[in-house]
């Protein structure tokens, strides 16, 4: 299996090179040259298997010769050994035909751990074998950063720099990033929003001299390995609910479009997913795109679901590639319109029809999110974080068996949950002293050159 850029440039790479490269050198994102398929018998054969075994079977066709089967199994086992639930990603019924897929059982309490714990293992194995080291640069609206730091803290072969929007992440998220004391960890509070952080990361990768000098690597979902690992839980959930004979829909709280794109990947592989529902907060560029075809940036408004306060949804580029018959030049043109003065583009009718053939969308204002958190607490007794409530709100409004992705633990966003329910969710025991741990906070302007200098100064490479 080889990976090609969504913008059509450069020679295709094998899995491990694509994983370590992160972003393609023409600024595009890596996608597989073709979709490996699982037939109905193979999907039915996943029923009852452990999460780790399903992960192996789903991901194996994508990784080619990067890891021998036995070695890959070991990495998967290690990745999920620290999860606090036997099923890793259990389902909880919240309505007659609605389930929450709980993705917060990893060490940092968000779905990011599912991929990041495995990526940490894969990076370490690949870098050790190559005798290489990397400088990881990532952007976060809160959860990717904490999960990445947890996965890479103390790793000899990697320095990790995480850019987060100053004052726009929850206190728990910030402390998860600023309290690890390991010398290879650097959390930087950028005076801007998430889109500024992500734009700075992409600019660093597109500065080839800097990229090569620092041996940059990415752990955002611009990295194909992230998306791949996230596609696994669509299989575990759908099979547990009767796939392949019963098609299941998924409603996904969406920001950078990585998680829902992972569902699209599962569908391309043959998993009978009925609808994929994009659920947004008031930062609703993707909802507007599905409804009107116009993909237009507006300012980012802070919300109680800060991890979704995003307008430039990186992975939408991967979908655009398929919507435009895998023509890199068409995607490159649209991305120029999005990042240039035009600030957006309008999909052709054909592309919009293809988008709507797979995706629905829903949008929730702040008062609706609070009402959903309160409603689910009253009806199920469970506290859901604002992001999860948005996914579940879209799921419960959809007819037919539908899974809403519960993407983070309520305790990561205690103020919003308490305001909506009167109940303050407690952090689990392993994080009980988070508020007492010492923080290291570096504040920096949203200036790529400044950030590059900071990284050069602090990196051990
Ligand atoms: C808790 C939570 N829910 C939902 C999302 C949105 O996911 P994605 O960016 O993959 O669309 C994020 C951020 O990624 C998140 O941290
Ligand atoms: N919500 C994310 C934003 C970055 O998403 P990623 O999946 O591309 O890493 C976050 O929590 O940082």
Task: Kindly describe this structure.
Keywords: Amino-acid biosynthesis, Lyase, Pyridoxal phosphate, Threonine biosynthesis. The modification N6-(pyridoxal phosphate)lysine is found at residue 112. It catalyses: O-phospho-L-homoserine + H2O = L-threonine + phosphate. There is one protein chain. The protein has 461 residues and is of the alpha/beta class. The chain has one domain: Rossmann fold. It is 44% helix and 16% strand. It is built from 19 helices and 16 strands. Helix 6 runs parallel beside helix 7, helix 10 (224-240) crosses helix 11 (258-268) and helix 16 crosses helix 17. The longest helix has 19 residues, at 112-130. The mean pLDDT is 97. Bound molecules: pyridoxal-5'-phosphate and ligand LJ64HWYM.
The count of DSSP E runs of length 2 or more, i.e. the number of strands, is: 16
Strand content: 15-25%
Question: What is the typical, i.e. mean, pLDDT?
Answer: 97
Q: What is bound: which ligands?
A: pyridoxal-5'-phosphate, the ligand N[C@@H](CCOP(=O)(O)O)C(=O)O
Q: Outline the biggest β-sheet.
A: 6 strands, mixed
| C-alpha Rg (nearest Å) | 20 Å
CATH class: Alpha Beta
Strand order of the largest sheet: 4-5-15-10-11-14
Low-pLDDT stretches: none
Structural class: alpha/beta
Count of all domains: 1
Termini, distance in Å? Answer: 31 Å
- Return the CATH architecture: 3-Layer(aba) Sandwich
Q: State the share of residues found in helices, binned by percent.
A: 40-55%
Classify the fold: give the CATH topology.
Answer: Rossmann fold
Count of discrete alpha- or pi-helical segments spanning 4 or more residues: 19
Shape assignment: globular
Catalytic activity: O-phospho-L-homoserine + H2O = L-threonine + phosphate
Enzyme class: lyase
EC number: 4.2.3.1
InterPro entries: Ser/Thr_deHydtase_PyrdxlP-BS, Thr_synth_N, Thr_synth_N_sf, Thr_synthase-like, Threonine_Synthase, TrpB-like_PALP, TrpB-like_PALP_sf
């Amino acid at each position: 299996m080889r990976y090609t850029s969504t913008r059509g440039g450069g020679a295709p790479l094998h899995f491990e090179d694509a994983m370590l490269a992160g972003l393609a050198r023409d600024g595009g994102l890596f996608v597989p040259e073709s979709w490996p398929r699982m037939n109905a018998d193979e999907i039915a054969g996943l029923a009852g298997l452990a999460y780790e075994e399903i992960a192996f079977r789903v991901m194996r066709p994508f990784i080619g010769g990067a890891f021998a089967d036995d070695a890959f199994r070991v990495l998967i086992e290690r990745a999920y050994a620290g999860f606090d639930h036997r099923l890793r990603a259990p389902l909880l019924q919240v309505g007659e035909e609605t389930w929450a897929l709980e993705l917060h059982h990893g060490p940092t309490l968000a779905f990011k751990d599912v991929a990041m714990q495995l990526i940490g293992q894969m990076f370490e194995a690949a870098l050790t074998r190559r005798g290489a080291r990397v400088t990881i640069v990532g952007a976060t609206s809160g959860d990717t950063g904490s999960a990445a730091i947890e996965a890479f803290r103390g790793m000899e072969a990697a320095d990790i720099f995480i850019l987060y929007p100053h004052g726009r992440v929850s206190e728990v998220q910030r402390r998860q990033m600023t309290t690890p004391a390991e010398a290879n960890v650097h959390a930087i509070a950028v005076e801007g929003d998430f889109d500024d952080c992500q734009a700075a990361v992409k600019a660093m990768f597109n500065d080839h001299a800097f990229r090569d000098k620092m041996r940059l690597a990415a752990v955002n979902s611009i990295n194909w390995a992230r998306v791949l690992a996230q596609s696994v839980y669509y299989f575990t959930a759908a099979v547990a609910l009767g796939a392949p004979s019963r098609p299941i829909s998924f409603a996904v709280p969406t920001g950078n479009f990585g998680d829902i794109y992972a569902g699209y990947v599962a569908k391309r592989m043959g998993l009978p997913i009925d609808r994929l529902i994009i659920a947004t907060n008031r930062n609703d560029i993707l909802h507007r795109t599905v409804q009107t075809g116009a993909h237009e940036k507006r300012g980012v408004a802070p919300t109680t679901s800060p991890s979704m306060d995003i307008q430039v949804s990186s992975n939408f580029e991967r979908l655009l590639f398929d919507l435009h018959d895998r023509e890199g030049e068409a995607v490159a043109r649209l991305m120029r319109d999005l990042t240039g003065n035009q600030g957006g583009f309008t999909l052709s009718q054909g592309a919009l029809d293809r988008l709507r053939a797979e995706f629905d969308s829903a949008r929730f204002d702040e008062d609706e999110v609070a009402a959903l958190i309160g409603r689910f607490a009253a009806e199920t007794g469970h506290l859901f974080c604002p992001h999860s409530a948005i996914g579940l709100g879209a799921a419960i409004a959809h007819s037919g068996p539908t899974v809403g992705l519960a993407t983070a633990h309520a305790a990561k966003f205690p103020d919003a949950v308490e305001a909506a329910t009167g109940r303050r969710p407690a952090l689990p025991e392993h994080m009980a002293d988070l508020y007492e741990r010492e923080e290291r906070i570096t504040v920096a302007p949203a200036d790529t050159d400044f950030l590059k200098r900071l990284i050069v100064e602090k990196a051990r490479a």
